[in-house]
Amino acid sequence: MYMINVSTEKRTKASNKDIIVKMAPIAGLLFIVIVFTILTGGDILGARNLQSLTNQIMVTALVSIGAVFLFGSGVFDMSLGACVCIAAVLGAKAAKAGGSVAVVFLVILGVSLALALAKGIMFSTIKVPIFIITIVGGSVITAWALAVLGKETTILLNNLPKLTSTEMAIFNVILLGAFFLISLYFFNYTSLGKSVKLLGGNPRAAELTGINSTKIFMWTSFIGGIGVALAAFVILLRTNTASALTGGTIGTDVMVALVLGGMPLSGGPRSKISAAIVGACTISILNNGLTMMGLTIGTIQIVRGVIFLAVVLMTSLSYRTKLLPR
Known about the structure:
Blueprint: H1 2-39, H2 47-72, H3 80-96, H4 101-125, H5 130-149, E1 154-156, H6 165-189, H7 191-201, H8 203-208, H9 213-239, E2 241-243, H10 250-260, H11 274-292, H12 297-316
Antiparallel strand pairs: 1-2
Helix pairs in contact: 1-11, 2-6, 2-7, 2-9, 2-10, 2-11, 3-4, 3-5, 3-9, 4-9, 6-7, 6-9, 7-9, 10-11
């Protein structure tokens, strides 16, 4: 009887611990909101700032949702920000040449998927740690964007439709909602999602079960490319500009967002689509709040780094698998 009670108590403690771990990202988001509401005197929740905040969340969330498939399969992709940049720059070039909105979107989508195809092939064939491939690839893509821009520092567009704040908000909600629901279905209810989690959690076991890693890497790169394309398109519609700085912090923001959302960057069974939304909200509110407090870019980066390391340290104690890439 005593042994049964001890076993039951252990299961109860483990269950409570799992609940705490799952709720921690939501608690962290609420904590960030409360802290910056107090520190900014409520300005962070003002109507004008909420519009800006929504735009920031939108871009980070779109790329993060696609990144869940990449990171979930064990792909530590550091080139996402550069991919958003070149897609936006080439889309802006198409718009400046007289292309319609549909043409601009197709150019952005084509560039993003072409890059995704190239990365998927490299992930599958080059026997070098993936994060090294993406770091080098990101540098090459950034140089490509600079070459396309030439002497122009910023491409200004006048022929794209200028949406009102209300129209932009509605468009954002519909686009993000659709991409989230479709991704949620594929990640949680199809063989693709199961294969992604198994490949990220234990590549050797995935190979033994017959999972084709090349096929999975191609699919995850493809979905990640869709997230990049949607984010680049939203940026152009919202700002009507593109430059070498477009999407500059997105790569880091996505990485931090996924960790703050409760997902290990090493992928595996703990990967989840909800981490993209919760994390995007958290990192965007953090960035926005620190900016409203008048902190310099350097100081903001230091604060972000400290918070990221603290979350990594705390959450790694709760994961049976590694939080960071192998």
